[in-house]
Design brief:
Layout (H helix, E strand, L loop, with lengths): L3 E2 L1 H5 L7 E5 L3 H6 L7 E2 L19 H10 L7 E5 L5 H12 L7 E4 L3 H7 L29 H10 L3 E4 L3 H6 L6 E2 L16 H10 L8 E4 L5 H11 L5 E3 L3 H7 L21 H4 L4
Parallel strand pairs: 1-5, 2-3, 2-4, 4-5, 6-7, 6-8, 8-9
Length: 284
């Protein structure tokens, strides 16, 4: 899954009718700050499950299909998502599209976010005219999906036969984490200046320091599946094949009484709350 594309790649394709750009920032940012030319607005909170006790989980397939239809997306489009937070929100969009059957070779994350684009390239304030489509979601078969459930992760923790990777901040990890988990803040793979990925050699070095190697199965978790989306795409981009995505993450794990290690008896920061403000802060 060679998902990351640069500004030059996208700029040369903005007029291509087979490329659909999606802005996942809040509506006020899209309308008030500006957006990439031709981008459709699909705010992050629209593609998270609205079901009770399902924080951060996938939307229903029909809801996803309706959302992409309204954004003018066809199943054959090259879909490029961006945000203004180093790509972490856009990554969740891309992973959702992948899980619901959009061709992986046509899924892209802008390497560098809105702020990086706006430094050197034109932006727009007018929303484009979008012709609705009849997009259909086709969830991946279980055998092809990277999703793993609580029982699978519990068995993996007990067996110790995979690398459990916690993609949250060090303080969150110290407070509460899955037994034996290795901590790797997703932002350790991001270049603060370019707002995109670090150089490939540096990314490989950071991963190696944590013991993340291609010969090991890797199970990713955070709090509510946002941050692991970015790390999942990075690993797949680098050619890692055996990467599992624990969507329920620590929110579900603790709710179901899963064993934890840490300093505060299992209490964890809420990924969508103030304890995560450093990850969620939007700069323009």
């Amino acid at each position: 899954m060679d998902v990351f594309v640069g500004a030059d790649w996208l700029a040369s394709r903005l007029d291509d009718p087979g490329v659909r750009v999606v802005d996942v920032r809040d509506t006020w940012e899209y309308e008030g700050i500006g957006h990439l030319p031709g981008a459709a607005s699909v705010p992050f909170d629209r593609f998270r499950s609205a079901a009770e006790n399902a924080s951060g989980m996938l939307p229903a397939p029909d809801d996803w299909a309706d959302l992409l239809s309204a954004a003018g997306v066809e199943e054959t489009d090259h879909l490029v998502a961006y945000d203004d937070t180093h790509g972490v929100f856009a990554a969740r969009f891309v992973v959702t599209a992948y899980l619901y059957g959009h061709p992986p070779e046509r899924l892209h994350l802008l390497d560098g976010d809105y702020s990086a684009w706006a430094r050197e390239r034109p932006t727009a304030t007018e929303a484009p005219d979008v012709e609705a489509t009849a997009y259909e979601a086709a969830p991946l078969p279980e055998a092809e999906s990277p999703l793993v459930d609580y029982e699978t992760v519990l068995a993996t923790v007990e067996a110790g036969d995979a690398l459990i990777l916690d993609t949250r901040e060090p303080a969150e990890y110290a407070a509460s984490h899955l037994p034996g988990a290795v901590q790797l803040n997703w932002r350790d793979l991001v270049d603060e200046e370019t707002r995109g990925l670090l150089a490939r050699e540096r990314v490989e070095s950071v991963l190696a320091e944590r013991g993340v190697t291609r010969d090991r199965r890797v199970v990713l978790y955070c709090n509510t599946a946002r941050r692991i989306s970015h790390t999942y795409l990075v690993l797949r981009h680098l050619g890692y094949e055996d990467v599992a995505f624990y969507e329920g993450s620590l929110t579900e794990w603790e709710a179901r009484g899963g064993p934890v290690e840490g300093e505060t008896d299992g209490e964890s920061a809420n990924e969508d709350g103030t304890d995560d403000e450093s990850d969620d802060a939007r700069s323009t």
